[in-house]
């Protein structure tokens, strides 16, 4: 009986000690354990919860467009161009990932993104608003001829005159500038030219900044990590079947960062967010600016700053984005991926841009609260809870000695419009994130307390079982003596 008791006591002590040790180790390594488990839940695998949310996101995305109406074109270039901001013209954006291809051998997934826009009745601007802006079709023709010889440029000048392009501005309805498009004689002429002369641009009957893009996959083919190998999905590896950006050289040609849906976890104030933006054909970096609390969740806020678009004078690493002569600071030249058109990107109202940009125009009022590009991210989980993507589209112009229309044109950027995409996380998901964050924060404490409780139980069991032992164990070694009866005791009293 005593041997069985000793065996049970040994089992309790060993098992309890092992359990307490395991709980203690779990408390010390809880972060790594949680990160591995959470990462496996985010992986893009067929029929997973994460995949279904990614396939067709249900987070409402509003696509707001602010147009710049040029109010004094008849007095240009004697007067600085003055711009009046009109809008927003609001659309609801819907995204759906299609043509999914799985590559389990290297842990990647390929797809295309269908994007569609539907007019939102809460829009401030009307689609029938009359807008005047720089004639981008004329500006594109002159920009592409800037390195041509005297004869070629004179032919361009003659073509513009014969097609009644006698002004540098154009006026149309807001809807025509955006999704409907408007007709222009130069477009008909461009269709007769080979694609190489058009810079690879498709032959179109109408021009609009978003013409023919609705319900299309203009972002191109994307191949990203699925998260099945390294636990971090959505990191871009290929774009349009290439592992580099063909429009740039050197470091600028490298594909890197997130494709937009997934953000790295365990972010700190020293972290940078790197994201590939297909519309800009390049990566964009964001740096930490502040932390705070929103809807009970902590967040780190990262913004596009002056270094993100800076020119080579202060950021030499950006030189390879210039494709020749660098423009002003705070300006991104995307003409290489826009069929050679003079498209240049800035933050709205030239925020963080070279002061010379504001000196050339009137009506611009940069405001960091209204015009910054930021991601507010739950730092431990890497989940965006508040996002505002903002960019301004501008047309670059410069004087031309041999094209009459642009002989007196100053070298400047004409602001045309800026866009804002805002999205906030669903309240239901916020509740789930609070629970997950609670598990992450309190897991080590729970494991440590559990280890202490088990250790106390083991100690108590050890003490209790010791009390049941015999206090005189040597009595067990005495030989057995038969008790004497009464008669025997009388005969042998001793």
Q: Can you describe what's shown?
A:
- With 494 residues, the protein is an alpha+beta fold.
- The protein folds into two domains: 81 residues; 367 residues, no CATH class.
- The strands form two sheets. Strands 1, 2, 3, 6, 7, 8, 9, 10, 11, 12, 13, 14 and 15 form a 13-stranded antiparallel sheet that branches. Strands 4-5 form a two-stranded antiparallel ribbon.
- Helix 1 packs antiparallel against helix 10.
- It is elongated and about 110 Å long.
Number of strands: 15
**How far apart lie the N and C ends?**
36 Å
Describe the largest sheet.
Answer: 13 strands, antiparallel
What is the ordering of alpha helices and beta strands? Answer: HHHEEEEHHEHHEEEEEEEHHEEEHH
In round numbers, the mean pLDDT is 84
Separate helix tally: 11
Radius of gyration: 36 Å
What gross morphology would you assign? elongated
The fraction of residues assigned to DSSP E strands is 25-35%
Count of all domains: 2
Helix content: 25-40%
Global structural class: alpha+beta
Contiguous low-pLDDT stretches (5 residues minimum) are none
Concise synopsis of the structure shown:
Belongs to the CD36 family. The protein is an alpha+beta fold and 494 residues long. Helices cover 28% and strands 26% of the residues.
Keyphrases for this structure?
alpha+beta; transmembrane; 13-stranded antiparallel beta sheet; two-stranded antiparallel ribbon; glycoprotein; 494 residues; membrane; transmembrane helix; 28% helix; CD36_fam
